[in-house]
Amino acid sequence: MIQELQVVRLIELLNQQLADTFDLYSQAKQAHWNVKGAKFFQLHELFDKLAEELAGYVDLIAERATALGRACAGDGADVGRKLATVRMRSRCQAFDKCGAEQAALLSRTMDCGVA
User: Fold this and answer.
1) No. of H helices and E strands in the chain?
2) Whole-model pTM?
């Protein structure tokens, strides 16, 4: 049986992971919607695939937290307070130049080997 103190710590860790994963999902969708340039199609598809995979993890992490008998902290305010992820530049003058940066950042973060 898991001790109460261990449950509290597990929930904290899961909520941190939930915030970071939810943020990465949001960044991937932001990149998907805004990418432009010569590699538009490849990056557009890549960002959409990353977002789709991340959405599954968001759900899995949240459900694990609630399975431990606690509520998950997954609304926008909770996510914003807990973020540990590296933020991509949100406003790029030339978004096609940012596409490569975003692909590399998301790739490193997810360790999927695509850059």
Assistant:
1) 4, 0
2) 0.67
DSSP class per residue in 45-111: HHHHHHHHHHHHHHHHHHHHHHHTTS----SHHHHHHH--SPPPPS--SSHHHHHHHHHHHHHHHHT
pLDDT, averaged per 10 consecutive residues of the chain (115 residues), comes to 84 89 90 89 92 94 90 67 55 51 60 42
> Half-sphere exposure (CA, 13 Å, Cβ side) for 107?
11
Residue 67 CB coordination number (10 Å): 10
pLDDT of 53 reads: 94
Q: In sequence order, which residues have a C-beta less than 8 Å from that of residue 105 and are 6 or more positions away?
A: 86, 88
> What pLDDT is attached to residue 112?
45
Instruction: Retrieve residue 1's tokens.
Output: 């049986």
CA 102 to chain CA centroid, Å, is 12
Backbone angles phi, psi at 37, to 5 degrees: 110, -170
Strand extents, DSSP E, the chain? none
d(CA 53, CA 57): 7
In this predicted structure, what is the pLDDT of residue 64? 92
